[in-house]
Design brief:
heterodimer, A: alpha/beta, B: alpha/beta, 9-stranded mixed beta sheet
Chain lengths: 317, 383
């Protein structure tokens, strides 16, 4: 899929959930996509899911709360903590506030919910569902791919576990939300074998479990395509074989690393396309030493070009 | 500044717990430490969770599930000890745990068949973390190994895996069990007043979660009743094991803002919980000593000699490229050093500090693991 198509399709969705193996930059992409949506005039909510230390705080200079806070024009930011999501959830399924408090103040109930299989996932998913009702687009910074799978798969488990009652009904609704064509999953990957394999495995597993209404979008982060000619690579190889002093070695090694990264990008691109049936969207690496805000802004600017937004329109201070 | 002898640290340690965020080479670090110790003559078990397939293959782990698997070290003739590895399968660990603490075979079968248990074992948050500690305890106390290296799951909420046994124990707390099992059988005035609330809450739970579920849950509790003491005892032992003098936590990270943030957080948490901090390993570090060198001056002559039949044009373009690549490498190195300096200030007093350079290729065989191990065990500076 071309970058233009991918980004504009994502901005056409109601719910975009961003996941990936740890360390790939999924939080960065969630932030960048939310910024782009807001710049396009969509009422957008960006959320992190039950994190103790929200990682986008330094990017937007706001500590997110369960109730979304406005951080930029058309852009709100929330942290769906489990405790507050639980409160909101119980409120939404029991008739009166007094009864909600009665339930939640009972110590046994606390433990019961703390341990009941999937109760965390259910209430968090439910909170996401509630936000989707209120915004044009909700962008979720999901847990890393393994945990993201259990979060999405929870509707299936809940339908197995709860044979009647409002939880079952809610699980059915959430299953509908996940199966909606305007719900899209985004995977952020790196041109590294382990990351690419985990991406392929998670996508295939989600497909097998019927969790994907449409193909997800895969961003291959820090991607640089091969740029050396065969002759250049041959010379680099001969230099590497030659006796090198420390300084010379450093230069040759720098070149070899860049070439290896480029080859890895090409290989990852081919492998993802072959295994998934669609190709990744390539995004070049950020300049080293940038702050988290610089990095999110950089990705937003790059992806923004695909939907006709200029750097000036995307950047924020 | 006096350097820390990591060989001595390793020799007095019986359990190494590697913690850190995902994607920073935690499994590689765990395996490298294990292999290094085995070469020094220790009997080592590396307990890992879902490692990269090729690394698993290099350790001979394919479909071994919960089996202890001995890694063939015959290609390393100087290796005097043994290296064992095991890949965690949380479901079978949980089943084995139930089998061990259940009073009778019939009770065991009832639990294993219970609707709630079947879902819980598969899906409840943190079950994998809990099972890691459960299996670990088994392995450490088996007496078969004199060093165990635990590669922890990349948990989102830091040291959750240490608390999961506590959560299970809390859940099985007798008061909770009684509340579910005997909602209507309480005496005394206070209890009867409470009972009004409890009955209502129970009813409401039934309304929210469905009566069927509460029934499933009650029978689950009934079967679990006798297991409480067993869990509490094991939990206490696991906690003691983690805070023992022979245990050492190693925080693994990569030189990126987010990974270093997590590492600083882990070091803080370990200190707060008074858990023994071994030190920090920063993987995937770039190094570039030189600055402002001209690729033509450094390599021009050499490139001319080795170029052979390759055209002049190629020599010029490769030199230009190497100049740019070197400049970029230099910029990366400087940015990383600024970031790791921040870690070293924030984690001061937290054990050793070791950097491992980025490897030229993916680490997935014994030779590469040996190289990484040798890097880790150089004398390290203190934090």
């Amino acid at each position: 899929m071309s970058q233009d198509n991918a980004v504009s399709q994502l901005l056409d969705s109601r719910l975009v959930m961003v996941t990936g193996k740890g360390g790939t930059g999924k939080t960065t992409y969630a932030g960048a996509l939310a910024v782009l949506a807001a710049r396009k005039g969509l009422r957008t909510c960006l959320c992190e899911v039950d994190v103790q230390r929200p990682s986008l705080t330094s990017v937007f200079r706001v500590e997110p709360k369960f109730t979304p806070v406005r951080i930029q024009p058309d852009l709100d930011f929330a942290n769906l903590s489990w405790d507050e999501a639980l409160h909101a959830y119980i409120e939404s399924v029991v008739p009166s506030r007094r009864v909600t408090n009665l339930i939640l103040s009972n110590p046994v109930v606390g433990r019961f919910l703390d341990f009941t299989p999937g109760s965390r996932e259910m209430v968090v998913l439910s909170a996401i569902g509630a936000l989707v009702e209120r915004y044009d687009l909700v962008v979720v910074d999901m847990p890393a791919s393994g945990h993201a799978f259990s979060l999405l798969d929870i509707t299936r488990s809940a339908l197995g576990l709860f044979r009647s009652g409002p939880v079952r009904q809610r699980a059915t609704e959430l299953k509908g939300l996940l199966a909606d064509a305007r719900t899209r999953l985004v995977f952020v990957a790196l041109p590294e074998e382990m990351v690419v394999n985990e991406t392929v495995e998670t996508v295939q597993k989600m497909r097998n479990f019927g969790l994907l209404a449409r193909d997800p979008v895969v961003f291959l982060n820090r991607a640089t395509l091969p740029s050396l000619t065969d002759a250049e690579r041959a010379l680099l190889g001969r230099l590497w074989e030659a006796p090198l002093d420390a300084t010379q070695r450093e230069f040759v090694l720098a070149g070899r690393w860049e070439d290896a990264l480029e080859q890895a990008t090409a290989h990852s691109q081919t492998h993802l396309a072959a295994q998934l049936g669609f190709g990744p969207v390539l995004v070049p690496p950020a300049a080293p030493g940038g702050t988290p805000k610089d990095i999110v802004e950089g990705v937003a600017v790059t992806l923004g070009r695909a939907v006709g937004l200029t750097r000036r329109e995307v950047a924020w201070s | 500044m006096e350097l820390i002898d990591l060989d001595a640290w390793l020799d007095r340690t019986r359990l190494v717990v590697c913690v850190g965020s995902g994607g920073v080479g935690k499994t590689t670090t765990s395996a490298s430490i294990g292999l290094y110790a085995a070469r020094r003559g220790r009997r080592v078990m590396v307990l890992t969770i879902d490692p990269a397939r090729r690394l698993a293959n290099s350790l001979g782990l394919q479909q071994f599930g919960n089996n202890e698997h001995r890694v063939d070290l015959s290609v390393l003739p100087d290796a005097q000890g043994e290296l064992w590895a095991m890949m965690l399968d949380s479901r079978s660990t949980f089943d084995a745990l139930i089998a061990r603490v259940a009073p009778t075979p019939a009770a065991r079968d009832r639990i294993l068949d219970n609707h709630v248990y079947r879902h819980m074992a598969d899906t409840f948050a943190g079950s994998q973390d809990y099972m890691a500690t459960e299996k670990l305890f088994d392995i450490v106390t088996s007496g078969k190994y004199d060093l165990v290296v635990l590669d922890t799951p990349p948990v989102k909420n830091a040291l959750d895996f240490l608390e999961s046994p506590g959560r299970l124990v809390n859940f099985l707390d007798e008061r909770v069990l009684k509340w579910f099992l005997e909602p209507a059988q309480r005496g005394g005035l206070a209890a009867r007043l409470m009972q009004g609330t409890s009955t209502l809450v129970y009813k409401l739970l039934g309304y929210v979660f469905g009566d069927d579920f509460l029934e499933d849950l009650s029978s689950f509790f009934r079967d679990f009743q006798g297991l409480y003491d067993g869990f509490v005892e094991r939990h206490d032992k696991v906690v003691r094991l983690f805070s023992s003098e022979q245990t050492s936590f190693v925080t693994v990270c990569a030189p990126t803002e987010s990974s270093l943030d997590v590492a600083i957080f882990f070091q803080d948490e370990l200190q707060k919980r008074q858990l023994p901090r071994g030190g920090v390993v920063v993987n995937q570090v770039h190094r570039c000593a030189g600055d402002a060198h001209d690729a033509r001056a450094v390599l021009g002559k050499l490139a001319g000699t080795v170029r052979g039949d390759l055209p002049d044009q190629t020599v010029a373009s490769v030199l230009a490229r190497l100049g740019m690549a070197h400049k970029r490498l230099h910029a990366i190195t400087e940015a990383e050093q600024a970031m790791t300096a921040r870690l070293r200030v924030a984690a001061a007093g937290g054990g050793f500090y070791q950097e491992v350079e980025r490897q030229e290729a993916d680490v997935h065989d014994l030779a590469a693991l040996t190289r990484v191990g040798q890097r880790i065990f150089r004398p390290a500076s203190p934090l």
